[in-house]
Write a structure and sequence with these properties.
alpha/beta, FAD/NAD(P)-binding domain, Rossmann fold, seven-stranded mixed sheet, four-stranded parallel sheet, 9 helices, G3P_DH_GlpB_su, Anaerobic glycerol-3-phosphate dehydrogenase subunit B, glycerol-3-phosphate dehydrogenase (quinone) activity, FMN
């Protein structure tokens, strides 16, 4: 017997979570089918909507750039209302953990490389360090932690013309770890305020940084200031230093991305979404133009999941929601059409940051985000797509990845839920 729900969402990233939350708002019974850990843990934890469009950028207002996007872009499919719907679902899910919901304007956030990035939503721990704010800044890195070179980052910020002076220093973390220690090990040491020579991790770290302060009005650390008790860690460091403390988003593995994943899955639990994790969707059964059953491989045992509506949110090429070899690009679950040049040499440009065709690979949706075939006909009337598996956006160049996931997820989830509960 198939496991039956109203809406089945396939995927585990931000698009899938948003689709499931949006579908649940309609009163539908929703299940999230997640195979593996999402790409959120590789992401910065920032939520970009649109930073560059039509040759312009960085954009102060992401909504002002929507009309400059090409036809077929996911934002042109869902419209401004869809983008706003995605942000609303996100804001309600994350609550006070994120900032930026009070305005349509992008904030300018400094990254671990010293770049300045336009973003629409950012963690509360990042807020005191916005690059658009004045306040001389001391960046602190740790010896042996190569993910964040504070002096280099400070030099890059100065070159970017930020309205404050930035200086970077490298200090020893109060407790020594193995050279391959994960960022979570540093965070846990601060969480537990472990005993070290001269006091505790927090007190010794504050004393060390205090000796480096030279009139700066805020201090930035790589995003590792605690996990379970991060707010308490930041408050204590700020009190001891006498200036606000903030986190600088870092590369993978990203503690801010891991925290966002936890927040979203907590929101799914609260919304009553059923979660089945750890096993891939490998096949399906269809009848009369509708997906009837999705087959999941549970330790080599095919297990059927049935739903009135299905949302495909498995990601793009990076998330393995699309497969590619030397000759073709495919969507592996339902075999949806993914247009691409026949000649692989036409998939990319010689310049590293060129206009690469592969960046826009994905399924082609109709105006209700249902994937279409090469003749423009629906693959299945009850299948919708969301996130990176939808083609038409160069999210890296546009700085739009999270926004596309939120917008398409919110619209696909709502339409699926409304259809299932009619």
């Amino acid at each position: 017997m198939a496991i039956t729900d109203d809406v089945l969402v396939i995927g585990g990233g931000i698009a899938a979570c948003t689709a499931a939350l949006s579908a649940a708002e309609t009163g539908a019974r929703v299940r999230l089918l997640a195979h593996k850990k999402s790409t959120l843990r590789q992401a910065s934890g920032l939520v970009d909507v649109l930073g560059h469009a039509g040759g312009d950028g960085p954009l102060s207002d992401p909504f002002a750039g929507l009309d400059a996007l090409p036809e077929g872009h996911p934002y042109r499919v869902v419209g401004e209302d869809g983008v706003r719907a995605g942000l609303r679902v996100f804001d309600e899910a994350v609550g006070d953990a994120y900032r930026g919901g009070h305005t349509d304007s992008n904030a300018l956030v400094m990254t671990h490389g010293g770049a300045v990035k336009p973003t629409a939503r950012y963690p509360e721990s990042v807020a005191p360090g916005l690059a658009s704010s004045s306040g001389d800044t001391l960046l602190v890195g740790f010896a042996g932690l190569t993910d964040f070179d504070a002096p280099v980052a400070a030099d890059h910020l100065a070159a970017a013309g930020v309205p404050f002076s930035a200086r970077g220093v490298t200090v020893e973390f109060p407790k020594r770890f193995r050279a391959d220690a994960k960022v979570t090990r540093f965070a846990k040491a601060l969480d537990r305020d472990e005993e070290v020579a001269g006091g505790t991790v927090r007190s010794v770290l504050a004393d060390t940084v205090a000796e480096e302060l030279d009139g700066e009005s805020r201090v930035g650390f790589p995003a590792m200031l605690g996990d379970d008790h991060d707010e308490a860690v930041r408050e204590e460091l700020s009190d001891r230093l006498g200036v606000p403390v903030f986190e600088v988003p870092t590369g993978p593995p990203s503690l801010l991305g891991l925290k966002l994943e936890d927040i979203l899955f907590d929101a799914l639990d609260e919304a009553g979404v059923r979660i089945s994790a750890g096993n891939p969707a490998v096949d399906f059964e269809a009848e009369d133009g509708r997906v009837e059953t999705v087959i999941v491989d549970q330790k080599s045992r095919p297990t059927p999941y049935s739903a009135d509506q299905v949302v495909l949110a498995t990601g793009g090429l990076v998330g393995k929601g699309l497969d590619s070899d030397r000759e073709s690009v495919t969507e592996p679950v339902f075999g949806c059409h993914v247009p691409h040049p026949e000649d692989r040499y036409d998939w990319s440009e010689p310049e590293a940051f060129g206009d690469h065709a592969f960046a826009r690979f994905g399924v082609v949706p109709d105006d209700e985000l249902r994937p279409t075939d090469e003749d423009g006909e629906l693959h299945f009337e009850n299948l919708r797509a969301a996130g990176g598996v939808v083609g038409g956006a160069d999210v890296a160049r546009e700085k739009s990845a999270s926004g596309v996931s939120l917008a398409t997820g919110a619209v696909a989830g709502r339409l699926a839920g409304e259809e299932a509960t009619r």
